[in-house]
Design brief:
The chain is mainly alpha-helical. Helices cover 68% and strands 2% of the residues. The protein has 2 domains: 7-155; 158-296, no CATH class. It contains 9 helices and 2 strands, in the order ααααβααααβα. A two-stranded antiparallel sheet has the order 1-2. The N and C termini lie far apart (63 Å).
């Protein structure tokens, strides 16, 4: 056994690293929003260097360069947490393939985000690339959340804890939650906070796309209310009811922030809070999905019974009789 194999890795350590990945990826979304909202999207005008001559920001780039470079540095910290999570999953004994795969997916997602971020800079903050950057962040949150929850789950089959129609309603609610995020990205791409004065907009009418976004939010809230009522009517587990309540509360808070920011012409602080709210709505949605099922312990393989003496005689090879000539 090599020296790394002797390092103690416990479930609490895995859990903390997985949760740290969840938190770090929420933070990087918020700080990425701060980069855009302060007009610092091209504070470092190239990538992977900050300038053609330097990997770090310079005094000539001012506060915008410092903000953009700070966000790039934070990306490195997010990547380090992902690396530690994967190492911990590899060193844990007995090794669990599910944890290794999920931790690996998190690390690959962080690496992909770094590349997409670089493409965003090189494309001068094209709204389509910026939108992809945000949506991949939500997929990365899915990976980190799955990693975190799987640490405390066994590796057996999944069993529903609610009736199948409610599980279907949960999936439909999740799909609408994802659609709200995607359309929200389109709203952002049509609005004023482009990240830099030279950045293009997607050309959509802000009023029209914002109204469509609001309609989807109303649908999401309605589905969540229906899901909560259905869970109560079927005497669903308390965990599922609580998850639905949390999801509804987060949706209402996010909707209120969205309404106020719209009526007050998109002040940067409220827009930043709305980006944080989008992460929390998505995480609450994922919590709802996990609360309607549970994973059972893996079934160990049945032991092979030793052969009885008579069976051993029956299976033994006896010499063939000699042929007479």
């Amino acid at each position: 056994m090599n020296r790394f194999g002797r390092l103690p890795v416990s479930i609490p350590l895995l859990r903390r690293l997985a949760l740290a990945s969840v938190v770090a990826n929420v933070v990087i979304v918020v700080t990425g929003g701060a980069v855009r909202l302060t007009g610092s999207g091209l504070g470092c005008p190239t990538w992977p260097r900050c300038t053609d001559e330097s990997y770090t920001t310079t005094a000539a780039l001012g506060i915008n360069g410092a903000i953009e470079f700070g966000n790039r540095t934070l990306t490195g910290a997010v990547g380090l947490i992902a690396v530690l999570g994967l190492l911990a999953a590899l060193l844990y004994r007995p090794r669990r393939r599910s944890l290794v795969l999920l931790a690996g997916a998190v690390l690959l997602g962080v690496a992909a985000q770094a590349v997409i971020g670089g493409i965003t800079v090189r494309m001068h903050l094209h709204p389509g690339v910026v939108g992809v950057h945000f949506i991949v962040s939500m997929l990365l949150l899915l990976s980190t959340y799955a990693f975190w929850r799987r640490v405390d789950e066994p590796d057996g089959p999944v069993r529903l804890t609610v009736p199948a129609p409610i599980r279907t309603l949960t999936w439909f609610t999740t799909a609408v939650s994802g659609a709200v995020i995607v359309v929200g990205v389109l709203v952002t791409g049509s609005g004023p906070h482009a990240g830099d004065a030279i950045a293009a907009r997607n050309g959509l009418d802000p009023e029209t796309i914002a109204q469509f976004h609001a309609d989807l939010v109303f649908l999401l809230v309605g589905l969540t209310v229906g899901l909560l009522l259905a869970l109560r009517a079927t005497n669903a587990p308390a965990l599922a009811v609580r998850a639905a309540k949390v999801l509804l509360a987060v949706e209402l808070a996010q909707g209120l922030i969205g309404l106020v920011q719209y009526l007050t012409h998109l002040p940067v602080l409220l827009v930043g809070a709305h980006m944080l709210g989008a992460c929390l709505v998505w995480l609450a949605t994922l919590s709802m999905v996990w609360a309607t099922r549970e994973r059972q312990p893996a079934t160990p393989p049945a032991p092979t019974a030793p052969l009885a003496p008579t069976d051993q005689l029956a299976t033994s090879t006896t010499p063939a009789p000699a042929l007479s000539h």
